[in-house]
Amino acid sequence: MNKLIIVPILALTFSLPTQAQEVAIDKEAPKRMQRDLFFLASDSLKGRLPGTPESDVARDFIEQRMAEFGLEPYGEDGYRQAFPVPEYAAVDYDKTGLKLGKKVFLPHVDFYPVAYSGNGEISGRTLSIGYGIVKEDGSYNDYEGKELTGKIAVLNVSSPDGVHPHSAYAAYHSVNQRLKLAKAKGAAAVLLINPEKTASDVPEFFKAINSIDIPVLFVRNEAVAEKLAKKSQKVSLAVNMKERYSTGYNLAGFINNNKARTVVLGAHYDHIGMGGENSLYKGAPAIHNGADDNGSGTTLLLEAIRYYGKRQDTNYNYVIIFFSAEESGLIGSKYYTEHPTFPLETVEYMINFDMVGRLRDNRLQVSGTGTAEQWDEILDEPILGLDIKKDPAGVGPSDHTSFYYKNLPVLHLFTGTHEDYHKPADDADKVNYKGMAKLASMVYTITERTAAYERLNFQKTSSAEQKTTPRFSVTLGVVPDYLFGGPGLKIDGATEGRPAANAGMKAGDIVLKIGDFTIDDIYAYMGALGAFKKGDTTTIVYKRGDKEIEAEITF
Predict the structure, then answer these.
(1) Residue-wise pLDDT tens digits, 397-412
(2) Is pTM, for the whole model, over 0.85?
(3) What is the CATH architecture of 471-554?
(4) Which CATH code is given to the segment(s) 17-88+251-464?
């Protein structure tokens, strides 16, 4: 990430007597939020997937509430800002197939096209090109002595020593680059195989097609893959697919207090529908109601509309934005910040609510605390007895990131993950509504306190956000407690059949060591995973109560 030189605007850094004041909790707020969330997270809305009629019902509900409290429409069409949302690419399996000789294979079960594929029909003989790797120094060449022109290449997606960060072939792991090389050497089509299971299978579901203009199929059937690797086969194959888009809607409203500065409050109202690629549920497709993620943030923002819409705080103008397609990759908020409906240079800061429905023991995480010089001072004053874990990073897996990239101070409220995350069990009856009311009052308190400063001085954050995207191909199968302050990684749950559960771990345990790696925090945990590949066996040390337990795990 490029570091920008920021010339800070001088700010008043003294504390005003009013700064320590707290806005009292509205005792009626839990009931109101419970009514809203039970509707938004009901089965009738089928998980609020963007582009569906049920998502439109949620949109209309939110719009009605915005109008009820007199918010000025601040979208491009009333409150609405429409934008394209990529859906999973549509494969026409009537025109997509695979045959070896006369045997016809089943889509999904035996094979599927991948994101790099082009459309077309090819018949011919196969030629195994191993891993399809040619080292620049000439020390390794899978094509040596092979003429590929016009043939159907069979390419192993792993490498001679597997796919992991310490591989001697790490520079050649890119399947896309190996496919481009196969095409350049004359391949008419490519069949991908993964017989050794030392690499991940190429994803079956994808939204963007990055075609290399020849057909590419992944062969899931292990017996067929083994046959293709050993001997040339007569093959017929075809691919026909295209990208699809639906329409998502951001909703924006304005509370005009005739101030020079504006505060943005935001939350995403979409979820993942019946599950799909983003689901952590292993059963048949089911409604993922997303009560905590992010019906809770949506509901909290609806409650905030009541407070700010009734002019109980006139320190700033307020722009209220409900984003869609967050679960698809922050698409809605990215689109909004690239196509803002008001001047972003008037924004003082942005506060984002995402998964704020499971407050436990008054503990929550507030991210973005390093994005303004004054955040530490503002948040270090007690707020309603909340135990705040501060994370300075401006970049994270929610919509505040889009505003941070516009050089704006941000905060992101988060009450922690749980076993129901991205599963059908994330329901409204598990939400802590009194806790949400407390967080609403926390937000009101923050906007009161920041008014004591002439300006908040934006600053870049770097170290924490660079740690958030380590490269690793294995996992313990745990739900981390992101609010735990360490040392170690506390877990909220362990998935049955995965390494941690197989080692006897359960919710509340604290990971202290994996192999030779000491686990100080979640970043050390993710860094440790980068040293292992599928099939590796090592030891894990974890703490349960006052007892340390050592066990063997296999990734």
Answers:
(1) 899 999 999 999 999 9
(2) no
(3) Roll (2.30)
(4) 3.40.630.10
